[in-house]
Amino acid sequence: MAAASSKKILVVEDERDILQLVKLYLEKEGYRVDTATTGTDGLKAIKSGHPDLLVLDLMLPEMDGLEVCKRLRADLPTATLPIIMLTAKAEESDTVIGLELGADDYVTKPFSPKALVARVKALLRRVERSKEEAPTRSTYGTLVLDRSRHEVKANGKDVTLTAKEFGLLEYLLQHPGRVLTRDVLLNAVWGYEYYGTTRTIDVHVRRLKQKISLLTDAIVSIKSLGYKLKERDE
Ligand code: CA
């Protein structure tokens, strides 16, 4: 309970019964819960409240969940905010789009609040696990990236990377299982001042795959959006 109590969750849902029920169950688990009932208010609450995780309904007035998700993913500070989408069975095609837009998980309505809480816990655990590896080393199977030495080894052998290839690999290793847009990668690795194009990312991803064979299947392209480094158990 103690660990969970420090985590803040924002629930964006316009159906107030569901909103209250979800809030109640999450609070029972020791989470702090903020709520919003529109997409616009949800975005505002994220900027002011800095939640650790977002539970986002797909069908919302003003701005729907897909648009909220897209905006969050396109903005570096929220690019990796963990998101669980709430969808209805009839919205299955939207669910697929949601995952492509970078939601981390989804729960189909009607759902049991307990099941949702379990998903929240699992996603937060996933995020914590990837954070624990910092600050100096990231590993991915036989791949080891050492930040302090600026070294990368695959299968025990040194891999020579350019500074940007190293930065890109480092960012991917820090966010396994997350969809990262080209803009976000560009901003994270090249910085906001860079005037290159997002194609730069494609070129660098290709070079990483050429240099490190295990990345060939591990880095997947997400249609018209960006890339994802698969989780080790994915
Ligand atoms: Ca709704």
Count every beta strand, where a strand is a DSSP E run of 2 or more residues.
12
Strand content: 15-25%
- In the CATH hierarchy, the architecture of the largest domain is 3-Layer(aba) Sandwich
Specify the structural class: alpha/beta
List the secondary-structure elements in sequence, H or E: HEHEHEHEHEHEEEEHEHHHEE
- Helix share, percent: 40-55%
Main sheet strand line-up: 2-1-3-4-5
Ends: how far apart?
Answer: 28 Å
Profile the largest sheet. 5 strands, parallel
* Domain module count: 2
Low-confidence stretches: none
Question: What is the class of the largest domain in the CATH system?
Answer: Alpha Beta
Overall pLDDT level: 88
- Number of H- or I-type helical stretches: 10
Q: Radius of gyration in whole Å, from Cα?
A: 19 Å
Shape: elongated
CATH topology of the largest domain: Rossmann fold
Bound chemical compounds: calcium ion
CATH superfamily of the largest domain: Response regulator
Question: Which structural traits does this protein have?
Answer:
single chain, 234 residues, alpha/beta, Rossmann fold, Arc Repressor Mutant, subunit A, 2 domains, five-stranded parallel beta sheet, four-stranded antiparallel beta sheet, 44% helix, elongated, binds calcium ion
Describe this structure in words.
The chain has 2 domains: 8-132, Rossmann fold (3-Layer(aba) Sandwich), CATH 3.40.50.2300; 137-229, Arc Repressor Mutant, subunit A (Orthogonal Bundle). It has helices at residues 2-5, 16-28, 39-49, 65-73, 92-100, 113-132, 163-174, 182-189, 199-211, 215-218; strands spanning 8-12, 32-36, 53-57, 83-88, 105-109, 137-140, 143-146, 151-154, 157-159, 179-181, 219-222, 226-229. 34% of the residues are buried. The chain is built from 10 helices and 12 strands. With 234 residues, it is of the alpha/beta class. The strands form 3 sheets. A 5-stranded parallel sheet has the order 2-1-3-4-5, with helices on both faces. Strands 6-7-8-9 form a 4-stranded antiparallel sheet, with helices on one face. It has a 3-stranded antiparallel sheet with strand order 10-12-11. The model has no long low-confidence stretch (mean pLDDT 88). Residues 14-15, 57, 59-60 line the site of calcium ion. The site of calcium ion (CA) has 5 residues, from loops.
